[in-house]
Write a structure and sequence with these properties.
- This protein is about 50% helix and about 15% strand.
- By secondary structure, it is α+β, with helices and mostly antiparallel strands.
- The strands form four sheets. It has a six-stranded mixed β-sheet. A five-stranded mixed β-sheet has the order 2-4-5-7-6.
- The two termini are about 45 Å apart.
- The model is unreliable at about 130-150, about 230-265 and about 365-375 (pLDDT under 50).
Length: about 800
C-alpha cells in the first residue's frame, strides 16, 4: 500500500474517531440522546468502515460495523440507550484508535481478534429493546402515524435515478413514475407531494434541455428532506426520551434562507465543499488526455469518489452521497479488473465529475459561503425592508415560494420590487458575508514564515549600514520598510496559529478513562478552547497536558466517599482553561481536590534522596519537587502513576518550548497548574551576549538577573570550581568562553558579567564578557543530523549579518 494512501487513512480515521469519542463522552453524561449527535457518531463509524473496507483493514471494518449497528438501533428507536450503551461503543472507539495508531507506526494492521469488543456491542442490541417498553403515548403515535414511504425506499429509487445521468430521459421518467406510484400508494401528505411535483416539472424539461439535470438533483434533495420530515419515526421520538430533530422546514426565514447554522457546522460544510472540489480536480486530472487508464489512475479516481461519498454521509448531504456511490459502483468492476479501463471509463469519470460539480454548484447546500450566519450575512428580505420595501410584501411573497425558487427572482417577476433594487440588496448581502476559507499546506506556511524572517534579516542589515544616516530620504524609506515588514511578520506568524479546541477535546477523553479506571466521579470543564497558539506548540503540548490531566484525577481528586466526608460534592471538578496574556498563551489546569501538602512533598523527596537533609525550601520550591525525576507520592505503582516519571517530562517539554510552569495549591481545596507559553516558536526574545570574538543568544525565559560581582562574592570551592554568592545562595559559575573554547575571553569573573540562569533543578551563573542588549530574532534550527554542542538549540542571523548561536540552558552543562 502506498505511504500516501495509508497516511491519508490514518489522518482521516483519527479525525472521525475523535469526533465519535467526543460525542459519546457527552452522551454518557445525559439521560436523553440528541438524534443529531447519534447520527453524527453513526456517520463517523460508517465512513471509517467504508475507508477500512476499501483499504483491506478487516479488523477496523468489523469493529466499526459492530459499533455502527448499535448506533443504528438507537437511531431507529429499536434500542433504548443507557450509559452502558455509550460505554460499549466508546470501548469500540478505543479499540479502533489503537488499531489506527498501530497502522501509523507499523504500516500494517496487526493480527488479532476483537471478539471481546464485538460481543459487548452485540449484547447491547440483544437487550433493552425499546419496543418492549414503549409508552402508551408512543404506541398511539405509531398507530396513528400517517402511512408514509420509508426513507430507505425513496433513497433507493433516487439513487437509481441519479445513476442514470442526463443522457437517458426515458429511464429517468420511468424512475419518477415509480416514485409517483409510491406516493399514491402511501398517500403522501401535502409537503412531499409538492416537492415531488417540483421534481417532475424539472424532469419534463430534460428532453429539450439536458442542462436541467443539475436542477433536478437539487429538487431531489428537497424531496428527500420533505420525505424524511414526514416519517413515522419522527412522531414517536418524543415518547422515547429523544429530542426531535429540527425538520428542514423549521427555522425558515421570510426569504426562505435556512436558519443560521452553528459555527462548527458551517466550518464543516465549507471544508466539505472545498475538499470535494479538490478531489474532483484530482479525479479529472487522472483521466484527462488518456484513452487507457493504468492501475494507479483507476485507484485515484475510485478513491476520490469513495472519499466524497463518505464525507457527504458525514455532513448529511444524501444527494451527493448517492451520486458518488452510483459512480463508485460503476467503477468497482474496473478496479477489480472485471472491466477494461478504456476510453468509456474515462468518459464515465468525466461525466461523474461534471455531475457532482453540478450538485455542489446548486443553491440547496446550506454552506457558510452562501448564507453566512445571522450576524455575518443578514437575510435578503431584511435588507430589502431596510431599503424601503414593505415587510408585508416580503412575507407574502415568501409564503408562495416553491422549492428552489429564490425570493429576489419572485419579487422581480411579480413586479413588486425593481430588479435594480434587488441586485443592490444582493450586493450588500454579499459584501457582509464572512470571508471564504482556503486550505493551504503547512509546509507552504512554514516557507512563508521563513522567507519573512529572511526579509527581516536583510532589512536589518540595510538599516545598520553606517552609510545610511548620510542619506535622509533612503533612511526614511528603510524605516517605512521596517514598519511594513514587522506587520508582515505578524501576519505570517498568525497563519501558523490554530485553536486549542482539538487538544482540549483529547483531554476530555483522558479524564473520562482515568476516572473510570480509578472509580472516581469527575466533571471536566473547558474554557477558552478557541485560544490560538502556534501549531507546533499545540502538538508538543498534547503529551504534557495529558500527564497533568491524569495526575489531577489520580492525585488531586478524592474518592467519592472521601469527598462526601469532607463536605464536598461526590463528583470532583477538573477545569482546563486558556487565554492570552501579553505575548504569552496561558493554560491553566485546576481541580477542587485534596491539594498538596508542602511538608509531605519535602519528606518524600528526602526519603528518595532527591534533596539534601539540611536544605530549606519555600512553599513554591516544595511544589516544584514533583518535577524531579523519580519523584512520586503514590503509595504503589499502578497503570496511572507511581513510577516517578511524567511530571519531569512535563517541565522538560514546556521549557524546550521556551515556556515555564507554576503551581499554586491549597490543602483540602485543590491545585492549579499554570503553563505560560510563547505564542510561537519561530521568534525568540533573547539576551545578546559577547564572549571573546563570538556572540550568543540566551532565551529571556531562563534569565533571572544580571550582575557584576564584587571580589567578596566570589570564592573557589574544592572540586566545584568558582561559585558566586547571590541572595544568600552559592551558585556555580560557568565560564561560557571555557565551555566553548573561545580565544580571548575575560577570565576574571569580577571583570565580567554574570547572567543568572534558572533551569529546572539547577540554578547557575553564566560568565560572559558583556551584554549587548535584548533582541527578537528568527530561529534557524539546525539541519537534521548536524552535530553540535548539546547546549546549543539553533542559530539566528543578526542585523549586521553575523550568526549567533542560541543557547539551550537546560543542556548547557551536559557533557
Amino acid at each position: 500500500m502506498a505511504d500516501e494512501l495509508r497516511s491519508e487513512f490514518v489522518h482521516e480515521a483519527s479525525e472521525h474517531l475523535a469526533t465519535a469519542s467526543q460525542i459519546l463522552l457527552s452522551l454518557a453524561q445525559r439521560e436523553t440522546a440528541d438524534p443529531e449527535e447519534v447520527n453524527a457518531c453513526f456517520r463517523a463509524l460508517h465512513t471509517l468502515k467504508g475507508l477500512a473496507g476499501f483499504l483491506g483493514f478487516e479488523r477496523i471494518k468489523r469493529v466499526a460495523h459492530a459499533g455502527e449497528q448499535v448506533l443504528d438501533a438507537v437511531r431507529s428507536q429499536s434500542l433504548r440507550p443507557t450509559r452502558a450503551t455509550w460505554e460499549a461503543v466508546l470501548g469500540a472507539v478505543d479499540r479502533l484508535e489503537r488499531l489506527v495508531h498501530t497502522i501509523a507506526e507499523q504500516e500494517q494492521e496487526p493480527p488479532g481478534d476483537d471478539a471481546d469488543v464485538i460481543d459487548v456491542l452485540e449484547e447491547e442490541t440483544r437487550i433493552k429493546p425499546v419496543t418492549a417498553s414503549l409508552t402508551r403515548e408512543a404506541a398511539i403515535s405509531r398507530r396513528h402515524a400517517r402511512p408514509m414511504a420509508s426513507a430507505h425506499s425513496v433513497d433507493a429509487l433516487i439513487a437509481a435515478l441519479i445513476a442514470v445521468g442526463p443522457a437517458d430521459p426515458s429511464t429517468i421518467e420511468a424512475q419518477l413514475a415509480a416514485i409517483d406510484a409510491l406516493a399514491e400508494r402511501e398517500r403522501w401528505p401535502e409537503a412531499p407531494r409538492a416537492a415531488l411535483q417540483a421534481v417532475n416539472a424539472v424532469a419534463q424539461r430534460l428532453r429539450s434541455d439536458p442542462a436541467a439535470f443539475s436542477e433536478l438533483l437539487v429538487a431531489l434533495q428537497a424531496l428527500q428532506a420533505a420525505v424524511a420530515e414526514q416519517s413515522p419515526a419522527a412522531l414517536v421520538q418524543p415518547a422515547l426520551g429523544l429530542d426531535k430533530p429540527a425538520s428542514p422546514a423549521q427555522g425558515k426565514t421570510a426569504d426562505s434562507t435556512p436558519s443560521p447554522m452553528p459555527s462548527e457546522g458551517r466550518a464543516a460544510l465549507e471544508d466539505f465543499r472545498s475538499e470535494c472540489q479538490e478531489l474532483l480536480v484530482e479525479a479529472e486530472r487522472a483521466v484527462l488526455g488518456r484513452t487507457q487508464l493504468e492501475r494507479e489512475q483507476v485507484d485515484a479516481v475510485f478513491r476520490a469518489f469513495h472519499t466524497i461519498k463518505g464525507m457527504a454521509a458525514y455532513v448529511g448531504q444524501p444527494v451527493i452521497e448517492q451520486a458518488a456511490h452510483a459512480i463508485e459502483a460503476q467503477l468497482l468492476p474496473v478496479r477489480d479488473g472485471e472491466r477494461a479501463a478504456d476510453a468509456s471509463v474515462v468518459q464515465l469519470v468525466l461525466a461523474g465529475v461534471d455531475r457532482l460539480r453540478a450538485i455542489l454548484a446548486g443553491a440547496a447546500m446550506p454552506m457558510a459561503a452562501e448564507h453566512g450566519s445571522a450576524e455575518e450575512s443578514p437575510r435578503l428580505g431584511d435588507i430589502l425592508v431596510e431599503m424601503g420595501v414593505p415587510r408585508e410584501v416580503i412575507e407574502e411573497t415568501a409564503r408562495h415560494l416553491k422549492p428552489n425558487e429564490r425570493l429576489g427572482d419572485k419579487l422581480v417577476e411579480s413586479g413588486r420590487v425593481p430588479r435594480q433594487l434587488v441586485e443592490q440588496a444582493a450586493q450588500r448581502q454579499k459584501a457582509l458575508r464572512s470571508d471564504a476559507f482556503s486550505r493551504v499546506a503547512t509546509t507552504k506556511l512554514e516557507d512563508v514564515v521563513n522567507m519573512v524572517g529572511e526579509l527581516l534579516i536583510a532589512q536589518a542589515m540595510v538599516a545598520n549600514d553606517p552609510e545610511l544616516p548620510r542619506l535622509p530620504s533612503l533612511s526614511a524609506a528603510v524605516q517605512r520598510q521596517s514598519h511594513i515588514l514587522r506587520r508582515l511578520q505578524v501576519l505570517a506568524l498568525s497563519l501558523r496559529m490554530v485553536p486549542l479546541r482539538a487538544t482540549f477535546q483529547k483531554m476530555a477523553r483522558a479524564v473520562h478513562d482515568t476516572a473510570k479506571k480509578l472509580e472516581k466521579e469527575v466533571e471536566f470543564q473547558t474554557a477558552g478552547d478557541d485560544t490560538e497558539i502556534d501549531r507546533s506548540l499545540a502538538e508538543s503540548m498534547a503529551d504534557p497536558l495529558l500527564h497533568m490531566v491524569r495526575n489531577a484525577v489520580d492525585h488531586g481528586i478524592e474518592k467519592p466517599e472521601e469527598r462526601v466526608r469532607a463536605g464536598k460534592p461526590r463528583a470532583g471538578k477538573v477545569r482546563l482553561a486558556a487565554y492570552h496574556a501579553g505575548d504569552d498563551v496561558v493554560i491553566e489546569l485546576s481541580d477542587d481536590g485534596r491539594g498538596m501538602d508542602p511538608e509531605r512533598l519535602r519528606r518524600k523527596a528526602l526519603e528518595k534522596g532527591l534533596i539534601a537533609a539540611d536544605r530549606q525550601l519555600t512553599e513554591a520550591e516544595c511544589y516544584d519537587l514533583i518535577f524531579l525525576p523519580g519523584f512520586s507520592t503514590a503509595e504503589r505503582v499502578s497503570e496511572v502513576s507511581g513510577r516517578g516519571v511524567g511530571m519531569d517530562v512535563v517541565r522538560r517539554q514546556v521549557q524546550a518550548a521556551n515556556g515555564r510552569i507554576e503551581i499554586r495549591s491549597r490543602l483540602g481545596q485543590g491545585s492549579v497548574f499554570i503553563l505560560r507559553l510563547p505564542l510561537t516558536t519561530a521568534i525568540l526574545d533573547a539576551l545578546l551576549v559577547d564572549v571573546g570574538s563570538e556572540r550568543f543568544l540566551v532565551p529571556l525565559t531562563s534569565v533571572v538577573c544580571l550582575l557584576r560581582p564584587q571580589p567578596a562574592q566570589v570564592a573557589t570551592v574544592l572540586g566545584r570550581g568558582q561559585v558566586v554568592l547571590v541572595r544568600g545562595r552559592e551558585l556555580p559559575i560557568v565560564p561560557l568562553g571555557e565551555r566553548f573554547a573561545i580565544a580571548g575571553w575575560q577570565r576574571d569573573p569580577c571583570a565580567s558579567l554574570l547572567v543568572v540562569i534558572e533551569d529546572r533543578t539547577r540554578t547557575y551563573a553564566l560568565q560572559v564578557d558583556q551584554v549587548l542588549g535584548q533582541r527578537q530574532v528568527v530561529i534557524k534550527p539546525f539541519e537534521h543530523g548536524l552535530a553540535h554542542h548539546p547546549g546549543v538549540s539553533g542559530s539566528a542571523i543578526l542585523g549586521d549579518g553575523r550568526v549567533a548561536l542560541i543557547l539551550d540552558p537546560a543542556h548547557l552543562l551536559d557533557d
